[in-house]
Amino acid sequence: NTGIAILTSINNKITDIWPNISVIIINKWKVVYKLYSNNILIIANLKGDVFMKEFFPNISPIKFEGSESKNPLSFKYYDAKRVIMGKTMEEHLSFAMAWWHNLCASGADMFGQGTADKGFGENQGTMEHAKAKVDAGIEFMQKLGIKYYCFHDTDIVPEDQEDINVTNARLDEITDYILEKTKGTDIKCLWTTCNMFSNPRFMNGAGSSNSADVFCFAAAQAKKGLENAVKLGAKGFVFWGGREGYETLLNTDMKLEEENIATLFTMCRDYGRSIGFKGDFYIEPKPKEPMKHQYDFDAATAIGFLRKYGLDKDFKMNIEANHATLAGHTFQHELRVSAINGMLGSVDANQGDTLLGWDTDQFPTNVYDTTLAMYEILKAGGLSGGLNFDSKNRRPSNTAEDMFYGFIAGMDTFALGLIKAAQIIEDGRIDEFVKERYSSYNSGIGEKIRNRSVTLVECAEYALKMKKPELPESGRQEYLETVVNNIF
Ligand code: XLS
Ligand code: NI
Ligand code: NI
């Protein structure tokens, strides 16, 4: 749009040839610009050579302007280069764009069709559309200063319903295109995954399907997914078991299903390592939706499963805030469980609605929650992955500006959470309190318990001699909550 402004200001002649296409004649060059309904700006000549294409021409790169700014298209807290506890905000918060919500989802729900146009000027279901999404996605990430993206195989190409070989050829073409378009930028793949839940063949699950043929299709998809992960240099490879669970135990051999999932994971681990995948495999726990019960219920369940099948060295957790609350846990709880088991890998950053029982995937705006999340992440020494906005605009938020507002909200909420979490740690009152709370284990019988140098009989003798212990000290929850508020 800047281009046009400059052209008109030097008095170029503009002739309408049909409603949304105009011709501008500059120095005898014929330049066509088109403004689609969703505001895509294309500058091309009449032969169709495209000189410039801008998908969000009305939005300039988003800058940090500070908390006093009233500009909605600015960051109030996210200041990429600001140093907090020895690292820049950008290093602490490796934000990623989720292809599916941002470039694919149109706001369709069970009760109505989409409200947002994600055609990017092309017909959906074509490779032109797939490429337009790559171009639009890169422009979007660059305008926000986001360096990572995450995707399912079926987000980046249309799936051929008859022949998986056709889909695979399209994946080759689009991953070449992504590599070409991101070359020379600092945009990279955080993680990739395979959609093994939308296609009807996966109605009874993928790794957990009752059909061995379907199991092999899952394997074929995962094999291609791993090859693409290596090709794009992805840091991680995610398994979210959307349909790995059951609707009723009356038709389910749970033991067989769990063993087969472990077999598929083991095959993927071994194949991935054999082709040079050095990143982490991630399980993304979720207790339900779409299934009534999903096997990767929560972090504790998934970690137990990984240990049982010897996969714990290669796998970590990808914790999604909304999945935590669906499992009846806080986001902080799931992060803590993963961290204390050395398996905190990556985060799907979003939030749910406490009044709704499903995965609403809202952009995170609750600063208290992001503060406690960042407190866990800082104390765990950071993430091996990053913060992927598995978040989508609400159905009525259907404009290009809303796509930016969503990310600005999420990035600022995590940035403020990071600032506050660092202050809680630097303040020290909380950590000091917790340390003191367990001080009975620093010496005497407590120390022996920690060292495992005491028997049940000795502990019992110690108790019998005392007759009755003193009550433990107060938990002081209300005081600690005021400390957090005080820091806010
Ligand atoms: C769905 C999941 C999904 C995963 C990737 O609830 O969050 O989007 O992140 O398959
Ligand atoms: Ni997710
Ligand atoms: Ni989810």
Descriptive account of the structure:
By secondary structure, the protein is of the alpha/beta class. It contains 17 helices and 19 strands. The strands form 5 sheets. The protein has an 8-stranded parallel β-barrel, surrounded by 4 helices. Strands 1-2-3-4-5 form a 5-stranded antiparallel β-sheet, with no helix packed on it. The longest helix is centred in the last third of the chain and has 28 residues. Bound molecules: D-xylose and nickel (II) ion (NI) (2 copies). The site of D-xylose has 10 residues, from loops. D-xylose binds next to loops.
SSE layout and pairings?
Layout: H1 2-9, E1 13-18, E2 21-26, E3 29-35, E4 41-45, E5 50-54, E6 63-64, E7 74-75, E8 83-84, E9 87-88, H2 89-92, E10 95-98, H3 99-104, H4 127-144, E11 148-152, H5 153-156, H6 164-182, E12 188-193, H7 212-232, E13 236-239, E14 245-246, H8 254-274, E15 280-283, E16 293-294, H9 299-308, E17 315-320, H10 321-326, H11 331-340, E18 344-348, H12 367-379, E19 387-389, H13 400-427, H14 429-437, H15 444-451, H16 456-466, H17 477-487
Parallel strand pairs: 6-7, 10-11, 10-19, 11-12, 12-13, 13-15, 15-17, 17-18, 18-19
Antiparallel strand pairs: 1-2, 2-3, 3-4, 4-5, 8-9, 14-16
Helix pairs in contact: 4-6, 6-7, 7-8, 11-12, 12-13
Bound molecules: D-xylose, nickel (II) ion
Instruction: Please report which band the strand proportion falls in: under 5%, 5-15%, 15-25%, 25-35%, 35-45% or over 45%.
Output: 15-25%
Radius of gyration: 26 Å
Helix content class: 40-55%
| Mean pLDDT across all amino acids | 93
Low-pLDDT windows of residues: 1-20
Largest sheet: 8 strands, parallel, barrel
**Strand order of the main beta sheet, please?**
10-11-12-13-15-17-18-19
Oligomer: single chain
Shape: globular
Give me the number of helical elements.
17
Structural class category = alpha/beta
The beta-strand count equals 19
Distance between the termini: 41 Å
